[in-house]
Fold these 4 entries.
Entry 1:
Amino acid sequence: MPAETVVTRFPPSPTGYLHIGGARTALFNWLYARQKRGRFVLRIEDTDVRRSTEEATRAILESMEWLGLDWDEGPFFQSRRYDIYKSFIKRLLDTGAAYHCHCSQEVLDRKREENRSLGLKPKYDGTCRDLGLGPAPGSVVRLKSPSTGRTTFQDAVKGLISVDNSELDDLVLRRSDQSPTYHLAVVVDDITLGVNTVIRGDDHVNNTPRQILIYQALGEPLPKYAHVPMILGPDRTRLSKRHGATSVLAYRDMGYLPQALLNALARLGWSYGDQEKFTKDELIEKFSLESVGRAAGVFNTEKLLDLNAWYIRESDSRELAGLLAPFLEELGLNNLDPDRVTRAVDTMKPRSRTLREMAEGASFYFQDTLSYEEKGDRKFLRQNVLEHMEALRNRLSGCNDFSEKGLEGLFSNYLEETGIKLGKIAQPLRVALTGKTASPGLFEVMVVLGKADVVRRIDAAIQHIRAKEDEQAR
RNA sequence: GGUCCCAUCGUCUAGCGGUCUAGGAUAUCGGCCUCUCACGCCGAAGACACGGGUUCGAGUCCCGUUGGGACUACCA
């Protein structure tokens, strides 16, 4: 007997950018659907017209695409599905599972405050519940929920969860402006879109019994629930903007690779033995709701940084060169020879944790005139290396094997003849060629730069040293 | 306040009653490699929140305490 096709969903509300936490629940839903050869649907929950923006919707879609989380259906917009909600509300009204409530918001607010100050539950008191009222201007529709018994469900990550129905009040299904509330819209959408697996943040566990009540009032089968723990900031409170960058796009712009972010997000709250690194296909193969942890976790950039460095090292240099272009442009470096960028990337791979770091570290390759790092200039570009600089400059300009091997040979000959150590001239040359005291290996750098550039840069350094000398002489 | 959820190194986590003198990763520190910085390799330090049970035996099961988080809207 073929099992039912798994249908998962990701329902962001377009009131802000896609953040790390949302991306992770999207990832889990996507992984589960892909693994079960099911479908993944994207739904935009924009019933809160005031706070929803098109810009946020675009940013969310862009984030999903960047992460490579492709959806099979949608995006559906709740704002365009009001007719559907309307018919379901009517259905509930017709069967007596819902009723019209005329209580004004002011009265409700006041009662809630009273109860709270008395230490009682601030829930709706059911004034209109059995009055058999009809619709009226300003009235809402409420669910007539059971006041006795318990609502219990099996959660795939948390286990059995059970709440006394007396804790739940008659929640509003339709607002006075006729729009559906979140709870109604979610349930109706999941029913009509065929969603049978709900994976979401555990800030929704308390909402689940309320939503189950709606399913029951409608006589519809319940989906499978899996509530994954929240992501916290370093201070162990819910991750938010004040913890720094939380938007997916911000990580893209800081130079992270999507695979690194995905890997980090997957490992936050989910594990597979001692394995730390996972390709997308491995994640699809190995993911399981059962091995999602129950405890909330702190989002840690250190680990992401390390993963990103690893993915950079593992990536093809040519591809990285393409991804690096916007970061080089940010530094004012345009129209670069793609071949030279690729070779530069090759030398920068083991020493870059982000694309941004890589661009900064590689920028010297593409600058016509270098500005020397202050400390390196003072310490290494000195008169006492002039002689060696000049000698090496001449040998290099006559070199006809400008490969790493050829250069190593040229240098070892020179060192042997003069009896000096490489250490004596390496740093001065490094500063001359790169402007910095830390860089890829000297010979690698020279190969990428090419003979003409190397000679030109050494000449410039020699001139620079002479100029400093003259300055001092005066 | 009430309800629900959670609790292993700084952080992410392995552990599903005996194999735990608690493993991995990251961060930190030390060493090796070395033309610098990285990478890589080797090593060090670092955790079962607390208290009761259950059991021959508990990080692992139960209860309580403490601490965290979520929800408690005509927001999602």
Entry 2:
Amino acid sequence: MIVAALRKKLAYEARKWAEAGSVPLPENLALNAPPAHVKADISLPWPLAAAKAAKKNPVELAKSLAEHLSKVPEVESAQAAPPGFVNIVVKQTALCANLKAITLAPKSYGADEDGPKTKVLVEFVSANPTGPLHMASGRGATLGDSLVRIMRRLGRQASAEYYVNDAGARVVLLGESIKARYLQAKGQEAAVPEKGYQGEYLADLAALAPPEAAGWDAEKWGRYAMDALLSSHRDDMKVFGVHFDRWYLESELFASGAVPKTLEYLKGRGMVFEKDGAVWLGTLNAEGSTDDKDRVLVKRDGKPTYFLPDIAYHKDKYDRGFERVIDVFGADHHGYVPRMKAAIAALGKPPESYHAIVHQLIHLYRGQEAVKMSKRAGTFIPLRELIDEVGKDACRFFFALRTPDSHLNFDLELAKRQSSENPVFYVQYVHARIGSIFRKAAEAGLCAPGGEMPMPNARYLRDPEERALLNKLAWLPDVLLDCERLLSPHPLANYLMELAGLFHPFYEKCPVVAASDPEQGKARLLLIAGVRDAIREGLDLLGVSAPEQM
RNA sequence: GCCCCCGUAGCUCAAUGGAUCAGAGCACGCGCCUUCUAAGCGCGACAUCCAGGUUCGAUUCCUGGCGGGGGCACCA
């Protein structure tokens, strides 16, 4: 809370200072965490950024700004540092008050943070119900779910949605595939269609079919398989700790007539033309479009392509009042992004209201051996198998730790080991250790369970290890804003690693229950309560559990 | 051929254009368990693919290479 709140004050004062001295400050006044060798809590590069335009010496500017900012109540000291930084030490009382804010009212911060209260919709996973979810969906699920949780934490109205492609030709194709499996099991001659779904899972599903299945046609078989697979998707997401506010069926979209209505709407906007007997969307020349060609909406045979109902679905998102629309895609769909953006523009929506998060593929290994994933070939690794092997917590933390842009190497053998090589233990262990200290403290009568936590006495918590934790805790809300800005939970996961890394040395050097001065012990107890709550909070936002003991 | 992503320590990854110290974890070397969990801590080694450019300042931005991954349908 303190860093985010303090930024406003510092920025306000800096603008006043800049105005008085006619110094052109940059639009974006960001704060830096200073490097390790600088003994300060917050660092401002603002004078450096302004120096050139002002034609002044950056160090002189920094000195002047530092003097001005040292009057801010929460600031202990503000010092200029070459080549033009202002380094700020925050008052101990302010950091202690921040600790109380985290400990007592963890739900209070965020509500008054920067940023609009816009309604935002995050769509993710949206896998076709033609096979089990595979592990790439796990990455998308981690991204989307964590992002929604973080945005809600920041006071946004965020919703999660899963779009189910349950209509179209694939139902029959799926039906033909599973029917072939069924007949094969009966000893009859039957082949899965060449372009059909080859995975063994269909044989398993066929074996579970009721007796009357003998008389089913391909369509009926397709419905049966799709229902079962969709149900497994729901189960997988539940086990993975992922919540969707709505599972939006493509068939609903067709039933509501939204598809032809959307086509008419686009025609009315003059974005549609006919060529070669087909109906096209002018994505090539749509405003702000980066697409490299026009796209077909209705095929020559009169049937819509997948693109048209997708546009109808996105139109529906806006029609339902969402002002910000975020789609999470795997890298294999990245080519889809420019045309979707063009479609948003064609709908007349502001292009900046739409964001596509494209996460790169996961490279899966078993030890040294690369495992190829292919849904068609049926040799993919199902997400469920991954969860069963390495656990939900490790899986989600591992996925959350990387930026979506990075190609992720996931070694099943390594992840299965459940040793310290897995960073999630590093963080969870801190939570468990603190739980242990609290149990000891309760035995020693140092704290009443569930008792209210007062603000720690600011005379204490001045050791480097204590101070480092106080400082780190102050950055948590800022980290959440980073996650929102970057549309990724990875800054939070990395923050938790760093926080955990600061706790362990504290633990070694600063006894809590056994502190020589009982008052100091009390203050430390309040400090680690803050650490515990921050970790619990952070892990919860990532969908990872925070065990009391391990 | 065109488009997207990546290239940082032995390995897996961080770092809104900032600091003579580019951070973690694992692995490696040396220490540390009569005291709140050694799944830990301290210390030590080890890195920005190459070449230009922009800038007071580049891992970050631009151009061109090199290397790896993915995508380019009137399929879904």
Entry 3:
Amino acid sequence: MGAMTEPEPRWLSDEEQRMWRASLGVLNLLPLFLERDLQQQHNLSVHDYEILVRLSEAPERRIRLTELAGLSHQSKSRLSHQMNRMENAGLVVRESCDSDRRGQWAVLTEAGWDRLVKAAPDHVESVRRHYMDLFTEEQKKVVGEAFATIVEHLRNADGGQTCPSQGCPGAETKPGPK
Amino acid sequence: MGAMTEPEPRWLSDEEQRMWRASLGVLNLLPLFLERDLQQQHNLSVHDYEILVRLSEAPERRIRLTELAGLSHQSKSRLSHQMNRMENAGLVVRESCDSDRRGQWAVLTEAGWDRLVKAAPDHVESVRRHYMDLFTEEQKKVVGEAFATIVEHLRNADGGQTCPSQGCPGAETKPGPK
DNA sequence: ATTTCTTTATTGAATGTTCAACTTCCGGTA
DNA sequence: TACCGGAAGTTGAACATTCAATAAAGAAAT
């Protein structure tokens, strides 16, 4: 049979290369800074924070674990370990679920709520300083639209233990109402 | 003294909120997919890959460890552990440095180069599928500019064990020349 | 020369994450 | 009812990352 020639790879253009490397920079660096601020100021990890926000927004401040895993972009296993830590820290509790006896609720405690309310202003400030305020209004709009597309794509693609969620967008930054 | 009232936190607008949550989604999800592809197809981690690219582009395919840490956005400690793994895998070797006897070179091996050359086409494809090709040309341009600003800001801010590098932009995707 | 300060790089312990195996229960079907 | 496949959640071991402590050598000052 004739030699099956590989198609020439679709390398990135110079423009794309720059854009990709800048993206990698943000991907690698930004979490470090948010983490550091939140850790120093309130002894919380970014993951802790994201979970607190999600719970604070949910009806009765409780979410089933599998759904919470999806909302916070984590595997169920990882969330399980994380819940242990947060439960030890008194930020959340588990409650078993009436309608499905396999299920568990993650429930925000009073203490968890208080921690979140205290941390939120500083965290927004941190997000603004290292990220949001560095965009022009125009850029915010474009990036917002573009990234929404990407996330939708990734959620649909999925595959594997991770990210079993659907529907609702992503959380962060401000505690839910009341 | 009069009660010192906290200034009202500068919460994100709805627009900003959406944009930020989309950013978090990408931040959390994208690395998972790139990792999975690279792992399955070539048994490399994204960190491995980034280091291989950097070395492939460097003169004599060697870089001092501290500089490499900066280029690949890692702490020196982490890089040190990672080098152990990669050295065990035969992808790189350490060589001690003549001009500074504290120093070490990270040097790309023939095997490392081959691995990279084999992996690169698939990795670009992966980057395109999950990210690059989902942008319009306009969006690529705006995101590229905006993120370049962010990265510059973060590199300057810095603080701590991480990211001691300067100058040169970020690497990824295609092996260096020759 | 000696002291002191800094930079380079590594180490090991503590911590966090991933992965596959497992338990329990739901839901459908014979 | 009993069976079977799949979903919810947990577990522990393997693996990766962080953090603080350390060793060794350059740089600068006395």
Entry 4:
Amino acid sequence: MRIATWNVNSIKARFPTVQEVLQNIDCDVVCLQELKCETDAFPYMELEEAGWNCAVLGQKSYNGVAILSKYPLEDVTKGLSTMKDDQARFIQALVMADRPVRVGGLYLPNGNPAPGPKFDYKLEWMACLLDHARERLKAEEPYILCGDYNTIPTAVDCWDETKWADDALALPETREAFRRIKNLGMADAFEITDGRAHQYTFWDYQGGAFQKDHGIRIDHLLVSPQAADRLQSVEIYRKARSLDKPSDHVPVIGVFED
DNA sequence: ATGGTAGAAGATCTA
């Protein structure tokens, strides 16, 4: 089974590109972030015609997450139960493959500028995600928590650590909160397979960042032990960043034994 | 040199 996460930076502005990339990456499940549309405005019809089952949590202008699946989706939940806000940043579903897999799709707050209320919100959100993951792990089932974590885990996950020293994506508190989730037993799928330094999933639109490979690795798949046991490889689909009118993020794909 | 890019909304905000 191939499971992808991709921040599309507006599903409407990107829809032809999204359809093309979805065909090319040949996945069974795709978590999308930054839909930037309301739930009712999601292009259900076109995607269902292409064979996708869709679970969607949208909102006006900002955020928005979805899970697309070639298999039926059951037990869909929206939002983190302990996070009392109205931002569309979390969705989860049980993917009914022959061996079912539970998948959570998340869009973690950016948190800039830091310090400040936005950074406080980011850390609060990460604490709620930690609680959620701890509860989910009790089920001892294959569980994959994927999305745009807005977290650069270590110095080798960005092109120039000094440029990110004061950024909410790299501050020690952010990295510590991310490690806490891993320390529960949710492994970083990229780290335990490929693991190379300086492999990126996001390049800023400004200053020719992609051409210079000035990127950061902030899109991650965290996997429970039962999912890690079936993990074979991780692919970063860099080609998506060189298309016309690209998202600033590219898909990250986890390949699992069926 | 306090810029630069992109999207959605709408005469800014978020990233």
